[in-house]
Amino acid sequence: VQLQASGGGLVQSGGSLRLSCAVSGIIFRLNSMGWYRQAPGKQREMVATISRIGTTVYADSVKGRFTISRDNVRRTLYLQMNNLKPEDTAVYYCHVEGFNYWGQGTEVTVSS
Questions:
Q1: Alpha-carbon Rg of the chain, whole angstroms?
Q2: Long-range contact set of residues 5-9: C-beta below 8 Å, sequence gap at least 24
């Protein structure tokens, strides 16, 4: 199983980024997926999840700013991040829910 995350970078506060995660080795459309993040010195936390039928769950800290989506044809998971804040700075990981499959992480840095 491979999860290849991309799209991170340096952005100013209030800016936007779109993360992508290309997935192979599993039947993507049958699995719930999630984005998690880990800031320096902190534990990894859930950012958003999406079920195989498109039901979404968000952390309170990103509600109204982030949108998780999936393209089952392209087998790709997305995270649209708007109105970014310095506290969103972290390494973001994609994950196959219910399994110990993680992407390599993509770094997001938000400057104030």
A1: 13
A2: 5/92, 5/93, 5/94, 5/103, 5/104, 5/105, 5/106, 6/106, 7/106, 8/91, 8/92, 8/106, 8/107, 8/108, 8/109, 9/107, 9/108, 9/109
Task: Write down the residue that tokens 């991040």 correspond to.
Answer: 81
- Tell me the per-residue pLDDT of 88-106, one tens digit each, with 9 for 90 and over: 999 999 999 999 999 999 9
Say if strands 45-50 and 106-111 run parallel, antiparallel, or are unpaired: unpaired
pLDDT (tens digit per residue) in 43-55: 999 999 999 999 9
3-class secondary structure per residue, 16-76: CEEEEEEEECCCHHHCCEEEEEECCCCCCEEEEEECCCCCEEECCCCCCCEEEEEECCCCE
Give yes or no for a contact between 4 and 92, defined as CB atoms under 8 angstroms apart: no
- Token pair 């089952």: residue: 72
